[in-house]
Give the backbone structure.
Amino acid sequence: MSRSDAPAGTILETERLRLRRLEPGDLEALHALYSDPEIRRYFPEGVLTHAQTKAELDWFVAGDPDHPALGLWATVLKPGGEFIGRCGLLPGIVEGRPEVEVAYLIDKRHWRRGYGAEAAAALVRYGFDTLGLTRIIAFVDPANAASAATARKAGLALEREIALEGMRTAIYTIERRRDADETDSSS
Ligand SMILES: CC(C)(COP(=O)(O)OP(=O)(O)OC[C@H]1O[C@@H](n2cnc3c(N)ncnc32)[C@H](O)[C@@H]1OP(=O)(O)O)[C@@H](O)C(=O)NCCC(=O)NCCS
């Protein structure tokens, strides 16, 4: 978790990862991931151009004015800071209900080393403990076994499937346990 002596821009730390604010200098590393058809296989919009990647990066560098505590964050290895992906918590509306989504994307050169699950689990803890969220969801293409397994490893469970922009999408969810945020004054 984030510590007071962590480098500036740190959102949270895990044993092996640091999630920090995205910076303009992340553009080429981010574009290398966003332009890779294998990494972007399950994104409805597919690969992004350099200009599209820059527009998205600019948005997250500036921060969402309506949700400044949320965002996508550079996911870097400790201690050297190698950029291996971007993960975060994003606002959205699903069937009329405001939700916060945990999002994860890791460089394929680093897949299956536990980084995706490590980041996702840390984001869930951060969302509940630091941001005070009560519910976090993940959108999962039912064909994306890696995404479903990552959501499950972070404690989310399949809630339902919906049609999202014409695509069948599984909604995984986790809710903060009530006893985690209540003092035991009722018993
Ligand atoms: C989803 C993603 C972040 C997982 O990252 P990762 O670092 O490889 O994940 P982990 O090593 O932490 O593995 C987490 C779980 O997923 C499973 N997993 C990983 N890749 C898998 C694959 N290709 N097929 C099936 N399961 C897979 C792991 O086995 C593990 O589950 P287990 O411990 O129960 O076996 C990564 O595959 C990715 O970035 N994909 C492209 C972007 C994407 O599709 N993001 C999600 C949708 S928006």
About this structure: Residues 10-180 form a domain with the Aminopeptidase fold (CATH 3.40.630.30). The CA atoms of residues 18 and 81 lie 8 Å apart.
